């Protein structure tokens, strides 16, 4: 550990929202030229603490010092002026502006009273090149992939000449090559004396990038490791506050009755073709495959979100082939989509409203929704599914894991016969994953037919009774639990 003075010190930082305290007296020091991994489950307080440091949120109590002087930024601009930059997990780019304009928004270089576009584009081009992104800075952000947008956010931070950077899930949308370019840039920043707070759910990255590890749980700092070389299991146990004897719960035994049968299903775009399988009551049926295999397109078609050109879908032996999501929902089939923020919840509406939208039949009388009845219904769902939030809160205020629970709650309240989960734990921490797995097993025990699509091979192996593997839109095999392993699945996924 360096003996130099910290650039940032936090002492006794607290934050409360009304009666709810989300931070409990956090102490933290950040030194120049080091990467501190800030880890914890969704809702542990990481983002709140980071937002306090970056001036987005004001603390309820405690003190901060920056370069030895009192530090209390009133807003993000004040923090940036001090040399503190934050790259948020949620992208904040303006799609109708160019890349260069996004990089310098709010602080455009000026010349003779006008924006110096040449200087702006050259500086933006230089920052993009440092990250390996060969793209014209005068191009609009609109239409760029999520990964490229993430790199633009990082390039924006690089132009701040910051002394401290907070990176909140910076690699969530990046591929392996892009991630390594980012890590190379982080090493250069460290060599320049920049301190970095690094927040990530990808625990395998921590050993590669972190100098120290700080673990938070329930709004408090619970453990600190003086090295990034810490076994993942040790970190996870500190995050969840218990020993992890087993990540995945025991699978119940499926019943013999077939709930869902898919026969020769084919997409008009050829995303998948001639897919056939069945799912029994109480069975968890996994779907595995590499990117582009057609998994998401298949389950969207099964639940009426995408069209089909051939084949049929049967529910309890009766043909139901839905032509729209509402037909699938009425038949008893629901989809928890891959992108919960765009397709799963309405972020600026309350938890109660999100739950109510899928259950108007249960809470409306004569076409009118009673606020009292909505509150009662939503409060029961929040309690039953363990959502950490209150009905009046906007869904956008919740962590990723709790947003996913809201999506699950609104559909499971309808008591469906078939539940399709597309990437159910993407962007969700280990502790929240465990509760999602418990919900899946509870559904199976109740006799619901569950389909799980996952890019996480360990996950699909851990939760499934059987696994169908897809490759390039084709069904390459269905494996029983006893014969499914990482080798057998990957052989089929690459055949």
From TrEMBL:
User: Do the record's keywords include ATP-binding?
Assistant: yes
Q: Which GO terms describe its molecular function?
A: ATP binding; ATP hydrolysis activity
List the subcellular locations: Cell membrane
**Pfam families in the record:** ABC_tran
Q: What is the protein's name according to its record?
A: Ribose/galactose/methyl galactoside import ATP-binding protein 1
**Membrane-protein topology:** Peripheral membrane protein
Q: Tell me which species this is from.
A: Sinorhizobium americanum
Q: Keywords, A to Z?
A: ATP-binding, Cell membrane, Membrane, Nucleotide-binding, Plasmid, Repeat, Sugar transport, Translocase, Transport
**GO cellular component: a single term:** plasma membrane
What protein family does this chain belong to?
Belongs to the ABC transporter superfamily.
Top-level division of the source organism's lineage: Bacteria
What InterPro entries does the record point to?
A: AAA+_ATPase, ABC_carbohydrate_import_ATPase, ABC_transporter-like_ATP-bd, ABC_transporter-like_CS, P-loop_NTPase
